[in-house]
Design a protein that fits this description.
The chain is an alpha/beta fold. It has one domain: Rossmann fold, CATH 3.40.50. Helices cover 42% and strands 18% of the residues. It has six helices and five strands, in the order E-H-E-H-E-H-E-H-E-H-H. It has a five-stranded parallel sheet. Strand 1, helix 1 and strand 2 form a beta-alpha-beta unit. The N and C termini lie far apart (52 Å). Bound molecules: adenosine-5'-diphosphate. Adenosine-5'-diphosphate binds next to helix 1, strand 4 and helix 4.
């Protein structure tokens, strides 16, 4: 029985969609490491330090969650921490191709590690950090997607009224 799972991602910033997935993963695994990637091809808006701090604040009352960050390959981090399960999210069919490729590449590189896909609550199934940033830059109300402290941080960086 696997005790620990790893949820890697950019989390730029973390949203209620990510949080929904974290809670679902905790129903299956007693311990979940949520790890913020340093080397993402997407140009991040928030620093790794900021993203880690947001995740820590948002998951403060969840038992079994550890927030960390990592450089390099996800599978190297997983092996180092003796983790055999990766958690990823599937929202729309559009996620499928990228996630499928990544899961199979990771399996080729580390056959002992499985990727488990979870689906969020329907109301978060169209929510992405990218879309959120666009909406923030136009001053939209983000209260149903992120907590107030993240909405404030987004608008501070992006919204010029
Ligand atoms: P990455 O750059 O690794 O794709 P993201 O932070 O965008 O990082 O996403 C991390 C994982 O969380 C991905 O598997 C993504 O599909 C999933 N995810 C992102 N937003 C949501 C959401 N609203 N609901 C469910 N899963 C999500």
């Amino acid at each position: 029985m696997c005790q620990r799972a790893l949820y890697p991602g950019s989390f730029d910033p973390v949203t209620y969609g990510h949080l929904d997935l974290i809670k679902r993963a905790l129903l299956i695994f007693p311990e979940l490491i949520v790890a913020v990637a340093h080397n993402t091809h997407k140009k991040p808006l928030f620093t790794v330090k900021e993203r880690v701090a947001m995740l820590k604040r948002l998951t403060a009352d969840l038992k079994g969650v550890i927030i960390d960050d990592f450089n390099g390959l996800v599978i190297d981090y997983a092996r180092k921490h003796k983790i055999k399960v990766l958690i990823r999210g599937l929202r729309m069919i559009s996620d499928f191709e990228y996630e499928f490729q990544m899961a199979l590449t990771n399996r080729r590189l580390a056959s002992e590690i499985e990727t488990v896909f979870l689906m969020p609550q329907e109301s978060y199934s169209y929510l992405s950090s990218k879309l959120l940033k666009e909406a923030a830059s136009m001053g939209a109300d983000l209260s149903s997607f992120v907590p107030p402290f993240i909405e404030k941080a987004l608008k501070k960086k992006l919204f010029r009224p």
